[in-house]
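hey team, just a heads up i'm posting the complex here instead of the shared drive bc the drive is being weird again. everything in one block, sequence lines first with there labels, then the predicted structure for the whole assembly after. its two chains so it's a bit long, scroll down
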Amino acid sequence: MMAEPIAPIGAGQLGLTLVLIVLVVGLSYYEKLALEGEYLLGVGRTFLQLLLVGYILEYVFGLNRWYLVLLILAVMLAAACQAGVGRLRRRDLRLYPMMAISLLVGAGVTILVVTEVILRIEPWYHPRYLIPLAGMIIGNAMNGATLGGERYRSELLLRSAEVETLLCLGFGARRAAENARRQAIAAALIPTLNSMMVVGVVSLPGMMTGQILAGASPLVAVRYQIIVMIMISAAVSFSAYLMVVMLSRLYFTRHHQICYYALKK
Amino acid sequence: MSRPILEVKGVSFRYRISRHEYGEPVLKRANLEITRGTIQVLVGSSGAGKSTFLRLLNRLEDPTEGVIRFEGVDLAKCDPLRLRREVALVAQEPYLVDGTVRENLMLPFEDAVGGDGLRKKAETKMETVLHSVGLDGGMLARAARGLSVGEKQRVSLARALMTAPKVMLLDEPTSALDPDNRNLLARTIARINSSDAMTFVVVTHLEDFARALDGRLFRLRDGEIAAL
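-- predicted structure starts here --
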């Protein structure tokens, strides 16, 4: 499969990216974008975070222990949970368990099906497969949950006349919020749908590019990419759906009343 | 005198501003007794809490203090979904679903427990109900989207009448009507009130319209209700 081994990148070569960095900083300075500081911080974080992750993964791959792999997945989930709640920009502690459940279930089910049913990796925790795949799934699940959650809130505010009319006609909160819920879940899925439509035509996805650069046959790489696209769509829909359904408990009382205070800032 | 159909006792209300904080009081120990089959008219300037008062009567909100009873039962003990079919509220901004007037009138029967029988009965009622709000049967096939605001208001009133509620709460029903249509609406309310013995609670900021309704007048000011 590995037609030729991937060419290693030396520290000197990495240092040569400085040429491009200087050009970007120059552009920012010339056009007074005032982004030099932020850009350099971004560059610094990219170097630091990725090198660090590289060392950690190298270590974990070497030890090949199931508990270390699970620990890494747990850290990923916790970080995604924190970042996801942060993006919703609401000060409500009840969002944490909701985000955690939607990621745990939405991403968890997808990870299980992909690694244990479709790929059947051996051993079940094979870090070289499980960690990168889980990372992609969790990241996309977080996007789904935040996009869906935020859209649900704004749809409920926008459609408050519709929701209240349905409540007044004696319908329950679930029926009254039906259109808002649909819109929210659809909105969460749209970026994924769009990328599925043009995948391979407009651009080659990052993972596939990486595999090809690493020397894999394009035929193998596309098969992985197909699985990745499907698993991303699954993770996004599951977690967006779960988040929206759970948020209903925040936005409606059990007496089918809208909690406006929770919908507004 | 018979037992009031709705009874508001010492009701105060503050909107929640967060999970544990409440805003300024909108209602302060308000009292009102509503006799079955009457028209009650609540006047007050905008922002006086008139809409909030109606929202309390069909449990879109719950009072922070005091008790409201419907046919003698504390609203807090009523199933809100069943209550809202008996105490119907027509909002100031009429909302109609996309589709025809017919679909809008049949909307309340979408999940009818009675099934087809109930739906068939409702269908035979549609034209009569439209007539009662001053619209003709030809409206049924028209798209809700193409209606004027005044027509939309009438259709949403008709839709609420379809379930034959015991109490009808109308929030600023004249907001989109010219004086002629206002008088027409006042006559419509009087007619339904006398023919079906339906109780009306109407909220308005227009004193003329309030008087045209020929009901019991109240004023809501500074969170308190006083008879006029």
